[in-house]
Amino acid sequence: MASKRQPIDRSRRYGKPLTDFAFQEWKVPTLPPPWELTPVTPAATAEIDQVVHWMAQPHVQFAMHKDWDRDGWQAEIEFQFSDNKTRPFLVGQDGQRGGYVELYRVALDAVADSYDTPDRDMGMHGCIGEPDYFGYALPFWVALIAGVFETYPDCTGVISDPTASNQLVRTLDRNVCKIVDGHELGEVDLPHKQAALFRFERENFYAAMKRQGGVDVVLRELGGH
């Protein structure tokens, strides 16, 4: 039985001035092939239905706690489109969708007050919906970072903020750090959870990709093709 969607505390940051990056127009990141993102909009009936289905699966529910009914998810997507902070997407390869991800402007989120350089950063969190995609989590995370940097030239870093107790995602992010020279910043207190914070910097990312032969080579070695 689906749980009822409760109001979510998405307190905006409250300490530092905003920059123009927080209000730039949203674009769908173009990911390295064969990875692709499909926007989930308030009018995207099939895409919202897919999210509802995935969120009800046991392997997603225990981590996300968002197994809301259809009306709850409709309200959630409409809420996300009510300002410039967050945009949701389905993740896939060659038309086959396997997961859900939300990108957000760190400057509009409370997490921005937890570290020193958030003004032009993008945040990401999501889930693998289809069990067949479990093995793709690592290459997808790398592909998503590459796509964000390519689509948003002003973006200086990408962060991931999993729940501190979610050791599976923390291990994933630590593995991403090894590949892209990212940093684990430690645990932080957010209004809605205790989070483990990871940051993947633009300069480090491209230096790491160059050292390893390029994004396509890295993704191929990770099994992303």
Task: Reconstruct the topology from this structure.
Layout: E1 35-39, H1 45-55, H2 58-64, H3 70-80, E2 86-93, E3 96-105, E4 121-128, H4 137-151, E5 157-160, H5 167-180, E6 183-189, E7 194-201, H6 202-211, H7 215-222
Parallel strand pairs: 4-5
Antiparallel strand pairs: 1-2, 2-3, 3-4, 5-7, 6-7
Helix pairs in contact: 1-3, 4-5, 4-7
What is the average of the pLDDT values? 91
Shape estimate: globular
Percent range for β-strand residues: 15-25%
Q: Spans with pLDDT under 50 lasting ≥5 residues?
A: none
Rg estimate, integer Å: 17 Å
Task: Give the topology string: H per helix, E per strand.
Answer: EHHHEEEHEHEEHH
Write out the strand line-up for the largest beta sheet, numbering strands in chain order. 1-2-3-4-5-7-6
Report how far apart the termini are. 37 Å
Pfam family, one: Acetyltransf_8
Protein name: GNAT family N-acetyltransferase
Enzyme class: transferase
GO molecular function: acyltransferase activity
Short description:
The protein is of the alpha+beta class and 225 residues long. It has seven helices and seven strands. The chain has a single domain (27-222), classed as Aminopeptidase.
What would you say this structure looks like, in words?
With 225 residues, this protein is an alpha+beta fold. The protein has a single domain, classed as 3-Layer(aba) Sandwich (Aminopeptidase), CATH 3.40.630. It contains seven helices and seven strands; from the N terminus they run E-H-H-H-E-E-E-H-E-H-E-E-H-H. It has helices spanning 45-55, 58-64, 70-80, 137-151, 167-180, 202-211, 215-222; strands at residues 35-39, 86-93, 96-105, 121-128, 157-160, 183-189, 194-201. The chain has a seven-stranded mixed sheet with strand order 1-2-3-4-5-7-6, sandwiched between helices. Helix 1 (45-55) crosses helix 3, helix 4 crosses helix 5 and helix 4 runs antiparallel to helix 7. It starts with 34 loop residues before the first strand and ends with a helix. Keywords: Acyltransferase, Transferase.
